[in-house]
Write a structure and sequence with these properties.
Layout: H1 4-14, E1 17-21, H2 33-45, E2 50-54, H3 56-63, E3 70-73, H4 89-98, E4 102-106, H5 116-125, E5 129-133, H6 137-145, E6 150-152, H7 170-178, E7 182-186, H8 192-200, E8 205-208, H9 210-213, H10 215-233
Parallel strand pairs: 1-2, 1-8, 2-3, 3-4, 4-5, 5-6, 6-7, 7-8
């Protein structure tokens, strides 16, 4: 059964706030638990109210030194499914034991090793609060109606990487808010202006990752811009 007291507390804590996704580039120089802990502490010092952390060991390391909600996920690259985010029941249990407050899972309607509603039930059985990373309104509405506390726009635009849009999916946020969902806006919110717009549209809070914690990505934006300017001038 869902922990309603925890749910109410989290909704109040996260209202109009920033969740910092401290997920470095895989296998990059920052991809170490001690660096992720440092990122987490730095984002909290900047005003973030919660953290999104990938990996059981990283969640455990961060949970030891912070007193804010942690959205825990496990990412896997599996051969027989495109589902990457917290695909297994064992992932849910391990994240809960490591100290995650909220556990996020892929909420899309794609072939998967474990049914979405089974994962949702398992999260509640572990005493945690659930977040569904969704790609469209249908999936978000289904999981909201099933009792998932937070619905993320996380995967909108990412199911077909050959056609990833530049802008966030503001329409999805709007539609989910109108349906009564507590929306965590996520996905391409890489500027303060975009984050503010999500709140204006009714999102409960906003998750920002690359623009804050992926040094390689941030650096490449500047390098690409400089190279484009140089090319245009020549």
């Amino acid at each position: 059964m869902k922990n309603l007291a925890l749910e109410r507390s989290l909704v109040e804590q996260l209202k109009n706030s920033l969740i910092a996704s401290c997920q470095p580039v895989d296998n990059g120089p920052m991809d170490k638990p001690e660096h992720i802990v440092a990122m987490a502490l730095a984002t909290l010092a900047g005003g973030a109210k919660a953290l999104r952390i990938e990996g059981v060991e990283n969640v455990r390391a961060v949970a030891k030194v912070v007193n804010v909600p942690i959205v825990g996920i496990v990412k896997r690259d599996l051969d027989d499914t495109e589902i990457r985010i917290t695909p297994y029941i064992e992932d849910v249990i391990a994240l809960a034991q490591a100290g995650a407050t909220i556990i996020a899972f892929d909420g899309t309607d794609r072939p998967r090793p474990v049914d979405r509603l089974t994962l949702l039930t398992t999260i509640h059985q572990q005493g945690c609060i659930a977040m569904a990373d969704c790609a469209d309104f249908a999936g978000g509405k289904l999981l909201h109606d099933a009792g998932c506390t937070f619905i993320g726009s996380t995967l909108s635009g990412y199911l077909d990487l050959s056609q990833t849009p530049d802008e966030p999916d503001y329409q999805l946020v709007t539609d989910l808010v109108k349906a009564g969902a507590r929306v965590i806006a996520e996905g391409r919110y890489n500027s303060p202006q975009r984050a503010a717009k999500a709140i204006e549209l009714g999102a409960l809070c906003v998750t920002v990752g690359s623009a804050i914690t992926r040094v390689e990505h941030i650096t490449s934006w500047f390098v690409d811009s400089i190279n484009t300017a140089q090319s245009d001038a020549s």
